[in-house]
Backbone:
């Protein structure tokens, strides 16, 4: 299959910002990430003093404040890793499809993972995160392939508009199937409803230990494809002329993205728009060279999701707003802006 090029950064020759600018932005993002991680440990339904944060990080749990910080550590780490994974997956999907609208949520990948998980819950008694991961990755992979196949039909191949429309339509259909599976099963409806919203509350070290190996594989596959994605941005023919094995590159990068999406969805639910907002923002900072864009996107995704988790805990005290709701509030207007800017209706 061939993929139709899209304008602007998605098919531009990779360019770099000056080295000093890249270093400044990297240090700034790292500093912001450190700040939001610290805020994630200190803020919540019970705010704690900075001295309690440092004591808890040293292993102390003698007071309620120190115990609260210790409980927030795995939650913070999960927000960082899932945010990084979703943003990296989005950047890779945009590179593989040369589609500026590519995102695990928009293309229906997250909903495919959700349907697979709910079927496993309802009919196979699946109740462990390790089982969710394999099921979610299978559902994500099948959905990604189906959306791409549907979006490739007709003249022009897989244009951004056709892929976005195919993803939206298939997501709606899968959401209906999810509802049909859950409604007659009161025993799983509460658990699935909380999971489906998308959040990192209730994270544990056991969940982290289960999901990290999968995320590590996904990170390696995606980051290893960075140089080849630069070649793909020039077009399949030119990439092949430069010595790239286009089909292998696309399959390897897509596999990495699917692993990241499936593992993240299994442990945190279907969180949308992180993979859309962050890569576009990072392109403004470091350019379109994937060797820089991918690691910057991972760092930016960690910042966004951790910050969203902190905000969700503050604005609704003593209750919480799940990060899946906040990322949708941020991402939906951004998606509309990208559609208007790219003028995809003309593709």
Residues:
């Amino acid at each position: 299959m061939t993929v139709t090029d899209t304008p602007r950064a998605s098919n531009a020759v990779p360019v770099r910002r000056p080295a000093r600018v890249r270093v400044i932005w990297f240090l700034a993002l790292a500093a912001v990430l450190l700040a939001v991680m610290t805020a994630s440990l200190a803020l919540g339904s019970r705010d704690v003093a900075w001295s309690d944060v440092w004591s808890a990080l040293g292993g102390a749990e003698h007071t309620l404040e120190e115990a609260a910080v210790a409980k927030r550590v795995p939650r913070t780490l999960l927000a960082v890793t899932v945010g990084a994974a979703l943003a990296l997956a989005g950047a890779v999907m945009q590179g593989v499809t040369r589609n500026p609208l590519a995102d695990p949520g928009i293309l229906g990948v997250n909903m495919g993972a959700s349907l697979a998980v709910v079927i496993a819950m309802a009919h196979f008694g699946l109740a462990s995160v390790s089982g969710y991961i394999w099921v979610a990755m299978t559902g994500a992979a099948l959905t990604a392939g189906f959306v791409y196949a549907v979006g490739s039909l007709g003249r022009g191949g897989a244009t951004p508009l056709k892929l976005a429309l195919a993803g939206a339509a298939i997501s709606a259909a899968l959401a209906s199937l999810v509802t049909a599976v859950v409604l007659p099963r009161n025993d799983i409806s509460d658990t699935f409803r909380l999971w489906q919203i998308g959040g990192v509350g209730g994270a544990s070290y056991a969940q982290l230990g289960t999901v990290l190996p999968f995320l590590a594989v996904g990170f390696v596959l995606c980051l290893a494809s960075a140089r080849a994605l630069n070649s793909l941005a020039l077009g399949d023919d030119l990439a092949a002329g430069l010595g790239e094995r286009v089909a292998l590159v696309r399959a390897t990068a897509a596999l990495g993205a699917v692993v990241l999406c499936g593992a993240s969805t299994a442990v945190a639910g279907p969180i949308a728009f992180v993979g859309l907002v962050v890569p576009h923002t990072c392109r403004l900072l470091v350019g379109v060279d994937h060797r820089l864009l991918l690691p910057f996107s991972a760092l930016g995704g960690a910042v966004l999701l951790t910050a969203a988790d902190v905000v969700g805990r503050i604005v609704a005290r003593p209750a919480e707003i799940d990060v899946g709701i906040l990322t949708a509030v941020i991402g939906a207007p951004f998606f509309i802006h990208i559609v208007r800017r790219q003028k995809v209706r003309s593709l």
About this structure: The two ends are 17 Å apart (CA to CA). Residues 64-97 form the longest helix (34 residues). DSSP finds 14 helices and no strands in the chain.
